[in-house]
Amino acid sequence: MAMALSTEFTELLGVRHPIVLAPMGGSAGGALVGAVSRAGGLGLLGGAYGDRAWLERELPIAAEGTDQPWGVGFLTWAIDAGAVERALEFNPAAVMLSFGDPSPFADRIRRSDAALIVQVTGVDEAEQAVDVGADVIVAQGTESGGHGARRGRSTLPFVPLVVDLAAPIPVLAAGGIADGRGVAAALALGAAGALIGTRFQATAEALVDPSVSKALIEGRGQDTERSSVLDIARGASWPTETYTARTLAHPFLDRWRGREAELAGDSRARQDYQDDVARGAIPPLPVWAGEAVDLITDLPSAADLVTTLATEAEDALTWAGRLRPKDDPRAGS
Prior knowledge:
This protein has about 325 residues and is an alpha/beta fold. Helix content is about 40%, strand content about 15%. It has helices at about 10-15, 30-40, 50-65, 80-90, 105-110, 125-130, 155-165, 180-190, 200, 210-220, 230-235, 250-255, 260-265, 265-280, 300-320, and strands spanning about 20, 45-50, 70-75, 95-100, 115-120, 135-140, 145-150, 170-175, 195, 225, 245.
């Protein structure tokens, strides 16, 4: 069994490993959350837009699926206070807010027993997260799968910047982390843990179509692309001037790349997209995938994945700790 890597984050949340399931809308359901939390990570339910029917189905599964800490994540720009209230009734250990101004919901979450986690994609957002009293801040780099800032920063330079700015608030690194070496790198950058999405999409418990799992196992990082084309095509209400999404290759991307404004004004093209989905020519949802998708080669249980990530991280840090200058007296003979 993996040794516990203790950080400010694991101590704050009372979890064994500094590994967090990203609250991926729709696919991070109660079963996946429970499995990650039982294995010693922090599972976060993908509450996304705060869809009531989905929450009513998945919240009880998460709450009853583990006696360990778990949480819920929402898209800040898309939810109302009622969604947060409903989630809090299940006593989550944490509520995460991503994309948008967290202020309208921050006080309510902080009055509960839940830790407030705020995801940020730039320095201004990081400063705002500190100001609203975030207990944990997630620094998301543009390598991440799914949605992120149109003008974001890469994980490697962004994480230490946020770590320094937010101290002593613990920071989680997100974006392009799909194995234990990535977790170790996050800790070396000063983060107190890693938030992982794409790698957890390819697990037995994720609420994804088998075609998505297959695409992730076969996918390559160079085939991922950030764009707003698919959000526009499928009529998603994302603020496309602010956020794009990283996905695997898609025929609509090839057809409309660089012509987003034209697509937005072309109702016929958007209907074509819906028709293609209806007849099965294209998948119902884009395959969100981060740049580390190459590292995904299997479909483990979430519990086995958490243990593997923790063990690999520990091994990577042990190995890195042995690297000493030749003239360092600690290096031995």
